[in-house]
Amino acid sequence: MANKQQIQNIKTNIERTIQGLRTKPQEFIYDKTKGFVRPDMVYSVYYTFNKKEMYLTGITDTSNSKIIKRVNNKTMFSKYVDLKVSIRQKYPEIISANPSESDYRIGSIKRYFTQKGNNKNSDIFEISKRDFGSKNNLYKYTSFRWRISGKREEVIRDNGRTIRIQEIDYPGISKILSPLQLWKPPKNSTESLQKKLLLLKFD
């Protein structure tokens, strides 16, 4: 929420300004209330030194100016800024989860997946925590806890539930996930001994 000093800073720390424009129906919303600005209200545009396009009601001398945000009819300036941001953003890279022994002792890991935001049929793939933290606007993202150790039936139950939940917003994710993916049986359990016997058999 902007105070009077912040609004005054916007008005003075600028490269240029366009004064005395008029709003169109449902073109702007108030930054504070999110309600639409009425048509034919006077507003001005301020281009700041940090390359932002700010909108305030009234003109430079108006004492009660309010910040408004454009929701329709984007200007060429804002379209250019949006394009620069999308070009600069890093694209997520495919990884394969590789739990450590410490992870297996804990019993679960956090997994991160992404998919192109404008195409529900595009591939869903796993990404790193770092890529998840620096999201690209062209993609949508999800994360969840994934069990990698414990009793077989409990792991199947819990991871199966996770897959079903993820399928709601990410149809097809069940094709790349299975409940026992990355799972290791507890040491000296029946499953662990059977796995060792199989390895000896094919050794």
Number of helical regions:
6
The biggest beta sheet reads: 5 strands, antiparallel
Give the overall shape, derived from the CA principal axes: elongated
What portion of the residues fall into strands of 2 or more residues? 15-25%
Instruction: Write down the Rg.
Output: 27 Å
Strand order of the largest sheet: 1-3-4-5-2
User: What do the pLDDT scores average to?
Assistant: 87
Distance between the termini: 67 Å
In which range does the helix fraction lie? 25-40%
Say how many strands there are.
Answer: 8
Structural class: alpha+beta
Spans of at least 5 consecutive residues with low confidence: none
- Order of helices and strands, N to C? HEEEEEHHEEHEHH
Notes on the protein architecture:
31% of the residues lie in helices and 24% in strands. The longest helix is centred in the C-terminal third of the chain and has 18 residues, at 152-169. It has a five-stranded antiparallel sheet with strand order 1-3-4-5-2, with helices on one face. A three-stranded antiparallel sheet has the order 7-6-8. A hairpin with a 4-residue loop joins strand 3 (42-48) and strand 4 (53-57). By secondary structure, it is α+β, with helices and mostly antiparallel strands. The protein has helices at residues 4-12, 76-88, 101-106, 129-133, 152-169, 190-201; strands spanning 14-22, 28-30, 42-48, 53-57, 67-70, 108-116, 125-127, 139-147.
